[in-house]
Specification:
Layout (H helix, E strand, L loop, with lengths): L1 E5 L6 E6 L7 H4 L6 E7 L3 H13 L4 E7 L8 H13 L7 E6 L1 H13 L6 E5 L2 H7 L4 E6 L2 E8 L5 E4 L8 H18 L1 H15 L3 H21 L14 H11 L6 H18 L5 H13 L11 H8 L12 E6 L2 E5 L4 H8 L7
Amino acid sequence: MQTLTVALADRSYPIHIGAGLLSRAELIAARLPQNKVAIITNTTLAPLYLEPLSRALEARGVGVMTVLLPDGEAHKNWETLNKIFDALIENRCERRTTLLALGGGVIGDLAGFAAAVYQRGVPFVQIPTTLLAQVDSAVGGKTAINHPLGKNMIGAFYQPLAVISDTDTLATLPDRELAAGLAEVIKYGLIRDAKFFDWLEKNMNRLVAREPEALAYAIERSCSNKADIVAADERETGIRALLNYGHTFGHAIEAGLGFGNWLHGEAVSAGMVLAAKLSQRMGLLARHDVTRVIDTLSRAGLPVAAPEFGIERYRALMGHDKKVEGGRIRFVLLKRLGDAFVADNVPADALNEVLGKQSARV
């Protein structure tokens, strides 16, 4: 097991990464303010992981209740959130009852947001079971639900007590979900870690083949990058905005297609290609480097061509993005591979040209 720390003073917490951690109940029990937990999971994951986790906790004297939710991004909404509240209230859960988010990014976001607002805040632990959640959404305290007009528009910053990433859960992950997680892994190399991107280029086949050592290294390196950024800028007033590379386009793709039709990582992949092309169009990124971005994402099994919504539709969808400031759409662009920045003055003709030429070609 490897352990990293998200350094937030008295709210600092560990990220545990390793195999067999679902049976390591002491990692959770030691941090509980009360010997009662509510495990929040979905109908797909419950048959796989709910019993071993519950059994391990109960063996340590922890009382366990379960909240079972439908699976999928389409259910990341108020209706599903209320199902959590209904169960917590019916089971007389108190302010010291800890919520355990057992699942991918949707479960983590729902459980985290529920924890942030139930009785004005209860503790929670992230137990991510997808690669995307282990390297990104479970770390950093962003919690939210979707609105029909925009992704993650309603939520809160709320940090967990701990993140427990059991790499064994990746063995049951569908290939498409694994690829979606690799999109966020690749993102870290592109925005601030050029050496890591070089490693990803050389080792992508090992990651796609799910070699345990390669996956463990990629998860640790990704979490280390994110932990550093979150510690420096918890509420996204500065450097944390770089984590949104590809997301302005990606969130527009998700909303335009209907939430759940493309996985988040798939939309971000196509969005990162558009952002790389926009960086090239503005004279920042070399053509060869755009090709490297496309090739690496393609080898991960990810889409590199965005849907053809048309320029006006894209602009309308991006206008609802959380990063809009003063009416301007803000983009994360690349000066070079491993060096990102936030731009709020992208020329309209450059953006229109990129949105009008959506293809895998540079």
